[in-house]
Amino acid sequence: MINRKIRMGMIGGGQGAFIGAVHRIAAQIDSQIELVCGAFSSDAERAIASGKELYLPESKCYPDFNTMMAEEAKLPEGEHMDFVAIVTPNHVHFPAAKAALEAGFHVLSDKPATLDKNEAIELAKIVKATGLKYGLTHNYTGYPMVKQAKEMIQNGEIGKVRKIVVEYPQGWLATPLEQTGQKQAAWRTDPKRSGAAGCIGDIGTHAENLAEYMTGLQIDELAADLTRFVDGRLLDDDGNILLRFEGGAKGILHASQISVGEENSLNIRVYGETGGFEWHQMEPNTLLVHKLDQPTQIFRTGNGYLGEAATAHSRIPAGHPEGYLEAFANIYRNFAADIAADLSGEAAPAYAKDYPTIEDGVRGMAFIEAVVKSSENNAAWTKL
Amino acid sequence: MINRKIRMGMIGGGQGAFIGAVHRIAAQIDSQIELVCGAFSSDAERAIASGKELYLPESKCYPDFNTMMAEEAKLPEGEHMDFVAIVTPNHVHFPAAKAALEAGFHVLSDKPATLDKNEAIELAKIVKATGLKYGLTHNYTGYPMVKQAKEMIQNGEIGKVRKIVVEYPQGWLATPLEQTGQKQAAWRTDPKRSGAAGCIGDIGTHAENLAEYMTGLQIDELAADLTRFVDGRLLDDDGNILLRFEGGAKGILHASQISVGEENSLNIRVYGETGGFEWHQMEPNTLLVHKLDQPTQIFRTGNGYLGEAATAHSRIPAGHPEGYLEAFANIYRNFAADIAADLSGEAAPAYAKDYPTIEDGVRGMAFIEAVVKSSENNAAWTKL
Amino acid sequence: MINRKIRMGMIGGGQGAFIGAVHRIAAQIDSQIELVCGAFSSDAERAIASGKELYLPESKCYPDFNTMMAEEAKLPEGEHMDFVAIVTPNHVHFPAAKAALEAGFHVLSDKPATLDKNEAIELAKIVKATGLKYGLTHNYTGYPMVKQAKEMIQNGEIGKVRKIVVEYPQGWLATPLEQTGQKQAAWRTDPKRSGAAGCIGDIGTHAENLAEYMTGLQIDELAADLTRFVDGRLLDDDGNILLRFEGGAKGILHASQISVGEENSLNIRVYGETGGFEWHQMEPNTLLVHKLDQPTQIFRTGNGYLGEAATAHSRIPAGHPEGYLEAFANIYRNFAADIAADLSGEAAPAYAKDYPTIEDGVRGMAFIEAVVKSSENNAAWTKL
Amino acid sequence: MINRKIRMGMIGGGQGAFIGAVHRIAAQIDSQIELVCGAFSSDAERAIASGKELYLPESKCYPDFNTMMAEEAKLPEGEHMDFVAIVTPNHVHFPAAKAALEAGFHVLSDKPATLDKNEAIELAKIVKATGLKYGLTHNYTGYPMVKQAKEMIQNGEIGKVRKIVVEYPQGWLATPLEQTGQKQAAWRTDPKRSGAAGCIGDIGTHAENLAEYMTGLQIDELAADLTRFVDGRLLDDDGNILLRFEGGAKGILHASQISVGEENSLNIRVYGETGGFEWHQMEPNTLLVHKLDQPTQIFRTGNGYLGEAATAHSRIPAGHPEGYLEAFANIYRNFAADIAADLSGEAAPAYAKDYPTIEDGVRGMAFIEAVVKSSENNAAWTKL
User: In this structure, how many other beta carbons lie within 10 angstroms of the beta carbon of residue D102?
Assistant: First the structure.
């Protein structure tokens, strides 16, 4: 064990940003990581003001991420940051990650990895060339019950997977919110900052990642029907997709931002030859487990009957609900453990390798590209 | 008001049949209909034994439906049956309905209306020519909360409908049950008795009917991916379908009989511009009602805030759950009220016209045909 | 098997009554019972009009129950009624049951059995003396999942019972509804027609009966705190009760009619040494089953893993919800089977003895008396 | 705003402790507090080892809390700790709090405040005399939806409160776990370390605090029936209590640690003249809101329709579940804001005064004492 916390710099996440605060909580909840510096905004003045609010000395509030790389690289190990958290809008993910890796820092990036698939492939090459760690906050796979289902599938407890239904309905963009100046809506519906897809890029990729992570199966081809329901919107706000997985499993993925009344209702059902699962992000501590001809069982976090993976990713006893921030924190905790093991030269715990990587990032961009292409071709089957 | 119950004859539904008993309960629960005769089995001996168990005199237990038509037609009004309930496997629906209509009797048939679309079109002609009533037990639209949602959509309470997600997962055919001699599984997986589709014909049509009934929108085209997961099965046991409705709404319909752990989980979500609904058949007394920027409301049967349609289709106060049999009975009750109004010459109540007709039957067969065709063409878009 | 339906006469349940219609549906849903006569109202004219609406000949619509007894007693077996269903307000239960039994007819009575405990004891003597059958429609114990829990407790599957929490909150009397002329509210809040207790007599007794039926344990003593929350109300509209059962189990029973937002939310939780149960009347097809250190299981009606009792009391496959009327009907079905077995001289099925009797009726009245006495003594412990 | 985090010392919470880790997460999740020192164990060696695991310098890992007080008091403001978090077993709460206050440090203590009521009264005097801040982690009142209900009650949205049902069932002590050496079970069932009550002291007080906090009403008197179900146990493991509140509201409180299958199922229902609430700790982001004659509404955290209090106590948008740790953190966040306002001389935000104080602590001890006394007197009514 190294005798210090892992040191984090942050790019983006200044005043007014939502996801930056989430990353900071997730990073620090387990007291294994400390925020040591940041380039919190593309506006230098706001960057510094933001850092001061976080109790950082002004000298550690950099005006831009290139300066941060240059300055931190000058410091010795133990004084410079160990890794960079990237929490900007999508179009900055690639240049920021590239700069950090090339300056010798590990990267933990918000998703999607990049703005398009080509960038993602390029980034994968850089990660490989530098030998540094790259993690991606597909945070929904950080939930303990997702890991429980994954482990049970790996153990053959539901037989061969036949069908997967994964959904991600939201309702917050049912009206043209981006035309009101709402910041979150504005960049997510802007192709220049968000990429080729709207709803599918923002949340559809989470659904894709969840389905593939939980089942261990990859989508082979898909047929997608995207829609822009709200007048004047530039990107899709709803998508319905048929899936065919390698090995014969079939599936459905649908995501929406115009489903009035839905908050953030990511959920998944998996059916195998002899059993199945149902899990809902909004009540994440429960996993329904089906077995042929038996009563459905309610698995709950924190109980002794759970497997190693679920146990390693919850903090408190049964009946004490953990939520979104703790799932998010699991990715940070694991990523930090991976770095710490390298620094100390000690063996890492099993969970230290359980976080999404650039391979997931490439796959997510391939998914977006295939969905958009399929939809442009009237839902023609399209390979990933 | 006529001073007697409406008289029902039954075709099929003898010993060992499941759905026949359901129809008899549904018909008699409100004491507006009495069973007066039947041709309960294609086996004459069993037909008579079945009738005796139902306390019918042997003279009213006919050996086959043609005999029943002939004998009943000889009796005067008020002594002969008023209508025939057809509760046989699918391939008998058409000949039985045809015989009854041509003998002058109204028909209430289990679904699907016929074995294929051509038969359905032919049957529609016969119904029109005879001027008799024809009802179809798409029983799930008999639930009060389905009618509540329909009424609210008609009243514009959720704005223009944008998205419909309708599901019908079951798990009872996850294994090759039909190879064990189980009667229900055997005929449902046999193309000669069930028709061109398995899962889609048996339950997918209920989902289609529910979606169109509730929203008042018709499916314009669809893209379907059917699968036979169980080795040796002759018909689809799972189907995933993209929907495009007239007027621009999009949708998803999936049905399955291999979804282990699912019982009979028909459910629907509808999203409009300003609101939405969620309803589950297995907890049918609850309707979730979404409105933009407001808390979701839990509408429950039997309450004073419900509209006319829901109120007219429940029997007991709030908190006293009604179920499948009562919803099924609503179709019988309405059909009987329609006949009674004709017999008495009095005005019928509004609900007397609220039951599925041969038009729904034709539409259901068109749906099955389009789904099968689309799937054979690798999920190509196919018009209904 | 006798070759006819069991013949029922009805006392009460004329136009405008709620519970009479429920009893008629419950009696006839399984086609084992037919309504043959009635004294439907204390108003002779309305009694006849009510009977005609039910398609009875005028000669079978008696002006009062004494006339009905006298006339029916003149008819031979197979033509007279076999039993009487009593569905009047509480104060008529005793005289009607007495008259029927003394005239030689079996009785199935709505609960409570009588207006007070003395009447109940008197009635028990009459039942014993006549040797006739007496059933009581504590209908909530007719639900299949209640029987499943009872059977599992009997089989020792949760060990010795330690704690029972049974609740029956309603909200419909949160305002002085009886002062508006609402009929159901008026007699239930009138001591002359309802008895010494309001809420506790009307619904508290259902909770008591459910707890004792499911666990097989009897309440030994109780401490009750009754309240009249609504100004001007003559009887309790809320009660909180501590329970001590024979053998050491402890419990809580609370019932309320002023719990705004609650419909008819009877529910029970039972905890034993090694397991437990949770059941809710409003979603009655589900039984949660707890076992030490294991995931909670969701038992559902209609599944093969259920025991004999649950199976014998449901009609349709898993996933097809049954409700209040079917549970109510189970009492009628069982009572009719008991009569039919006697008439035919054949062995009755096990379920034919599974209905509440006059012993349950006496116990219910003892419960009411003890609750009222305890509350008058500032919640002093009071033996039943 | 002061330009630094608030500095926390910790007493207890060394290796192997559960609640210490919870407090550290809760304190640091919002990055407003930093852990600067601790006396983590009564074993000096373990105290130091525990501190090092938390990345504290050895000089800040004190061997006992008296040393910590003495040493920290020597440091100037901004370098010494600002407050002490006490996370020991119950019997240490009082001496530790006393020592800290007398040394000039604010105190945030785990509950119950002390081992008995006399200690609590004594402590209240010390708090008053020193003028320092004292907070108590009745963490369940930190949930946003609890605050939403409180605010709506204060605003008169459900009228005068009539009935309160508050429950806290657990099942983890259904067997004699304390006899296996399990540390959490051992001290909680030991009167010397836990106090006069077991289940009621450990969790019953949370229920009491929740009911009084949410409704703003105080319990006037109670009648309690405590039980020790597990052989050899020294303290109650189950309690059923009738409540009478000031102003006429009635209630039930029951808590249990032998309710097999229950995890940590604290829940509350409140009914007023015109509305009501239902809230469950295990799904804490949902609040059911009842209004007379209207559909029940599902209020959910993070939505714009919520009031100020709920909004001020959640961190992330609707649909992103927050849980136990975030609710716990709300108390720390508020307590730290209260200290920070004093330090800076600026006005505190409204939420800075929203945490449980020594008055709640005294009240909790009075509750325990009254419950134990009532139970010893066979559930006689006992004033708080």
Answer: 14
Q: Are residues A131 and A264 in the same domain?
A: no
Do D129 and D56 fall within a single domain?
yes
pLDDT of res. A96: 98
Instruction: Compute how many other C-beta atoms are within 10 angstroms of the C-beta atom of residue A254.
Output: 27
End-of-domain residue from the set D111, D136, D161: D136
Decide if A290 contacts B263 (C-beta within 8 A).
no
**Nearest-CA distance C171 → chain D (Å):** 8
How many Cβ pairs within 8 Å bridge chains B and D? 34
Instruction: Tell me the C-alpha to C-alpha distance, in Å, between residue B69 and each of B65, B221, B337, D155.
Output: 6, 40, 23, 70
Residue count (chain C): 384
Residue D58 has pLDDT above 90, yes or no: yes
The verdict on residue B194 lying in a domain is yes
Spacing of C-alpha D138 from chain mean position: 1
> Which residue's structure tokens are 């020294």?
D234
* CB pairs A-C closer than 8 Å: 34
A88 & A227 share domain = no
Cβ contact D299–B294 (<8 Å): no
- Within a domain: C35: yes
Query: A318-367: per-residue pLDDT in tens?
Result: 999 999 999 999 999 999 999 999 999 999 999 999 999 999 999 999 99
Question: Inter-chain contact C291–D251, Cβ cutoff 8 Å?
Answer: no
Residues of chain C contacting A, Cβ within 8 Å: 288-289, 293-300, 303-305
Task: Tell me what ipTM this predicted complex has.
Answer: 0.96
The subunits that touch chain B, with at least 3 C-beta pairs less than 8 Å apart, are A, C, D
In the Cβ-directed half-sphere of D304, how many Cα atoms lie within 13 Å?
A: 5
| CB A310 within 8 Å of CB A144 | yes
CB B158 within 8 A of CB A260: yes
Q: In what order do the strands lie in the sheet with A33-39?
A: A33-39, A6-11, A83-86, A106-109, A134-136
Identify the closest residue of chain D to C160 by CA–CA distance.
D229
Residue C332 located in a structural domain = no
Q: Identify the bridge partners of residue A276 per DSSP, sorted by sequence position.
A: A271, A290
Report pLDDT digits (tens) over A21-74. Answer: 999 999 999 999 999 999 999 888 999 999 999 999 999 999 999 999 999 999
In this structure, the dihedral spanned by the alpha carbons of residues D171, D174, D179 and D182, taken in order and rounded to 10 degrees, is -10
Both A11 and A38 in a single domain? yes
What distance in Å separates the CA atoms of residue D354 and residue D312, rounded to the nearest whole number?
Answer: 11
Q: Which of C136, C164, C198 is the last residue of a domain?
A: C136
Residues A345, A348: Cα–Cα separation, whole Å: 9
CB contact under 8 A, B285 and C282: yes
Q: Using a CB-CB distance cutoff of 8 angstroms, which residues of chain C are in contact with residue B319?
A: 170, 262-265, 281-282
